[in-house]
Amino acid sequence: MCAWLLSLAAFALHLFVASHANFAGFAADDALYLMMADALSPYSQPDVAAIYVGEVSHLPPFYPFLLALVGAGSEQIDIAHVLQVVLFIVGLGAVMAVAARVIGNPWVGIGLFSVFALSPYALILNTQIWSEFCFIALCYGGLLAVIERPKEFAPFAIAAFAFGLLAVTRGLGVAAIFALITVVIVERRRYLIPVVLLALLPSIVTKALGFGGVSHYFEIFNSYILQFSLWDLLRENSVQLWRGWIRVFDRHERLMTHVISAAVLLFVILGLTRRLRELRIDALFTVAYLMLLFLWPFPNAMSRLLFPITPLLLIYACHGLVGALWIPRIARLPAALSVTLIFSAISLSSSAPLVRNVFRELPGELAYLRASGYWLEVDDPAQALASLRRRHALIKTAKVAETIVPYDQCIYSLRPQLVMFYARRPSFGAAPSRERGSAPVCRYHMVFNDSSLLQEQALLWPDREVVHTESVDGDTVGVLVHYSP
Questions:
Q1: From CA 128, how far away is CA 77, in angstroms rounded?
Q2: Dihedral sign of CA atoms 450, 456, 458, 460 in order
Q3: Exposure on the CB side of residue 201, measured as CA atoms within 13 A
Q4: What CA dihedral angle connects 450, 451, 454 and 460, to 10 degrees?
Q5: How far is it, in rounded angstroms, from Cα 422 to Cα 361?
Q6: Which region holds residue 471: left if phi is over 0, alpha if psi is between -120 and 50, else beta?
Q7: pLDDT digits (tens, 9 = 90+) for 60-77
């Protein structure tokens, strides 16, 4: 009963916050997921922008397919948010069950459910459209099927297909396939061939249909290494992984959270080591996933990429405490429960202001941005309002472009996802002058007065005219340029 009440309360909280978010494009992937859903929708015909995104997007297709299946898309963001919150609660339910089986006590699982239901990072993720919650539901559902080392084939088949879908939800899902195959080779070798076939089937289908997948990430990795070095990547990822762990629970990254996390890390290592010695599938998956994260060519996305396995890391902390021989037996379970209570308190102290900020007064034209991180995470209302007004102007610039740019034309921009989502025209960055032909491929160019401004200005062609501008308090924020034939 307690678990059901917690699930309903968490569902209501996250759906309430997410219901105030009716925007996309600032996080890039969110717009791509929704436009890919448009392209895959069985209920409507995609427009030119959706078709283009479906052809060029590097993102794996399962989550957009799921969005399309339930009727979500660019015009139905509310449905996407409902699906996302449902997946989040289902995923947390699976986390709770996995924790109960690893530690042998359901109350630790309930405590972990509370930690992540209250996580400020989870609240912010739910205001955007990401695949992390789909990843969590598939990942922990698959682990749950085989975590107790069943002898029958059916649980392995369920895990294999779930992990196969995981790999076409996020490329990092290959870590789960590796863990499952390793366990099958060691313990249930007679199941190897069907398990491998089931696990690889979604990737084979995805490749055959021409969608993005793991191979695209290897291409990005190679381009990153050519610009920097492997050592630079490892060093930056290490720093961002630690900060990512802290931000899951504490958006202000307070010293107290760093100290508590450092102390808990010892028990994470102890618990993970115990599971590894027993060749448990969850531990093999965690190690493989972390190794991939250290090499993943997106240091700035480490918080989001680490988030799916933070429940496992806290499970290991509790497991390490329960198995610590120097702690009196009678105190081990209370110590594990205290970890969940401490992190729940940290999460609550950081997420409560976010929920409170949903109720701050906001002009009507900006109401659709009420649940954006630019409003929720900024404590100064004046500063937050100024940020929203500029972002609203960026969106207006892109929306106006839909009425100006012919249907068969494209738009240059260094924010192509935002432009495509609102202008509904194909968009991509202009080539540097040394790589250009004699005339621009696109006859329109959108320039935003943000961090990309100087780079964008250097990419402009001559013989141009300004056809539209958007300003905030006299400061030009967005410009649409037309190139002469």
A1: 9
A2: negative
A3: 15
A4: -60
A5: 26
A6: beta
A7: 999 999 999 999 999 999
